[in-house]
UniProtKB/TrEMBL annotation:
Name of protein: Glycosyltransferase involved in cell wall bisynthesis
Pfam families the UniProt entry points to: Glycos_transf_2 (PF00535)
SUPFAM superfamilies: Nucleotide-diphospho-sugar transferases
Location of the Glycosyltransferase 2-like domain: 8-134
A GO MF term: hexosyltransferase activity
Domain of life, source organism: Bacteria
UniProt-listed PANTHER family: GLYCOSYLTRANSFERASE (PTHR22916), UDP-GLCNAC:BETAGAL BETA-1,3-N-ACETYLGLUCOSAMINYLTRANSFERASE-LIKE PROTEIN 1 (PTHR22916:SF3)
Record lineage: Bacteria, Bacillati, Actinomycetota, Actinomycetes, Micrococcales
Keywords, ordered alphabetically: Transferase
Length: 297
């Protein structure tokens, strides 16, 4: 089947050096059928437009938001800027390996236009070296074990995601018509991508995966999820999400997934892991929030 051009729409707000690495990794693709749009979310310290123009690459275009839109609204603008059937929204600090585009195009063709696809992901640190922080070791334990390309769906897939979100949002290539149907919820920030996946999968969507490592995700201690984890606030959002998911899954008859959402095991363990840090900082409010997340339903 004719998969068509892959749209890569990259919101920019961050380190210029890492952003340049990200763009250059797109240029290094072994499949040339891609289009890159850099969406500047009004980063105040550097204007990337001149550097991008200097690349003299007609497949790259530059857009600037009229104001700082933040994460979810910038993601929605990425959807609006898409021109082709499939779209990836990478971080401006991540890196594509040379076979990313060819790998996702092969998945799309093999499984007849699944709703979203992802290759295997390698984690790197701030310096670009391979890294295995605890969160990613846990993801590796709970994600499906693959030796070949596969497409997953339904109760079985959602059960694994409710145990812990092992997918890597920046590495996912989405079908654009599906994104335009469901969009990104402004109700969530930390679990926004998991909420989107749940909407798609409850609607009968399929997630195609490849064991080929084709993307490098940069793990920062200063990411939004890491910042709020320390004071417990992220877990309020997570608890609300899992409670709503449990009800939706039970109503659908997906009993295993509903039980996994009720247990929210990795979310509880993550909160428990944060308790010693909160105690060391004397943050009694954070300790209360964390323990409440661990022990309440």
């Amino acid at each position: 089947m004719n998969v068509g051009t892959i749209d890569i729409i990259m919101p920019f707000y961050g380190d210029p050096a890492q952003f340049k690495e990200a763009v250059l990794s797109v240029l290094a693709q072994d499949d040339a059928d891609w289009r890159l749009v850099v969406l500047d979310d009004c980063y105040p310290h550097w204007d990337p437009s001149s550097w991008l123009e200097g690349l003299q690459e007609p497949r790259i275009t530059y857009e600037r938001n009229p104001e700082n839109l933040g994460v979810s609204r910038s993601f929605d603008r990425c959807i609006d800027l898409a021109r082709n059937a499939y779209l990836v929204i990478p971080g401006c600090d991540d890196r594509f390996l040379p076979d990313y585009v060819s790998t996702v195009r092969a998945l799309i063709a093999r499984f007849d236009r699944p709703e979203y696809v992802q290759p295997r992901v390698e984690v790197i640190d701030d310096d670009g070296a391979r890294a295995t922080p605890l969160v990613d070791r846990v993801k590796a334990l709970i994600q499906p074990r693959l030796t070949h390309d596969a497409v997953l769906s339904g109760d079985a897939l959602v059960t694994t995601l409710m145990r812990g979100n092992w997918a890597y949002f920046p590495a996912i290539c989405w079908r654009v018509d599906v994104l335009r149907t469901f969009r990104f919820s402004d109700e969530y920030e930390i679990v926004m991508d998991l909420a989107l996946q749940l909407d798609i999968l409850l609607d009968g969507g399929r997630f195609a995966l490849s064991p080929t490592t084709a993307f490098q995700y940069r793990r920062h201690a200063a990411s939004a999820s890491s910042y709020t984890a320390s004071d417990g606030t992220r877990f309020i959002e997570e608890r609300d999400f899992y409670r709503a998911a449990r009800s939706r899954l039970r109503a659908r008859g997906w009993r295993k997934a509903s039980r996994a959402a009720a247990a929210r095991i990795t979310s509880r363990l993550n909160a428990l892991y944060q308790v010693p840090s909160a105690l060391l900082h004397g943050d009694r409010a954070a300790v209360w929030l964390l323990l409440r997340h661990v022990f309440t339903r």
